[in-house]
Amino acid sequence: MTFIDQSLGILKEADYKITGPRRAVLSVLDKAKTPLSAYDIQEHIPASIPINVVTVYRVLDVLEKLNIVHRTHTKEGYVRCDFEGRNGCHYFAICKKCGKSYEFLMGNCGIKKIIPRNLPFKNLEHISEIAGICDYCNLES
Q1: Of the four listed, 8, 26, 95, 109, which is most buried by Cβ atoms within 10 Å?
Q2: Alpha-carbon gap, residue 120 to 94, rounded angstroms
């Protein structure tokens, strides 16, 4: 099953409509190799689909809420989630040169051991990023 098919299934299961803008954003993210801002996503959507950046942000909010996409802080953009629906800690390795991101999943990363027991939050989740130079860019240096 493709990323887009899985994502549409998650949207339907959560009682969200399958709209043209949602399909368009998913399609752009499916092809992206680097994190994309909402403006980048809008630029990659065909002109035949009328969508403004506010709509892109709204779509991204829904997709992020459903763990279909993740927001990366290092590159200030959004990437598709390759492990939606799978438990564990999501990590991203992001190349500081070309911006490519690689998602990997750690089954039990131990983060719960360092979180204070009296922290006034429930259902905590975290996404971690590490940055370096990917093998491809390292070869070019």
Answers
A1: 26
A2: 31
Tell me what percent of the residues of the chain surpass a pLDDT of 90. 39
Domain topology for 3-80: Arc Repressor Mutant, subunit A (1.10.10)
Could you give the CA distance from residue 115 to residue 110 in angstroms, rounded to a whole number?
10
Helix (H, G, I), strand (E, B) or coil at 84: coil
Q: Tell me the C-alpha to C-alpha distance, in Å, between residue 10 and each of 17, 41, 123, 125.
A: 11, 21, 20, 19
Distance CA 74, CA 56 (A): 20
- Report phi then psi at 31, rounded to 5: -90, -15
Q: What is the pLDDT of residues 96-128, one digit of tens each?
A: 888 888 888 777 676 767 778 788 887 766 667
pLDDT tens figures, 28-55: 999 998 889 999 999 999 988 889 999 9
pTM: 0.71
Helix axes 3-13, 20-31, angle to 10 degrees: 140
The pair of structure tokens assigned to 70 is: 């993740």
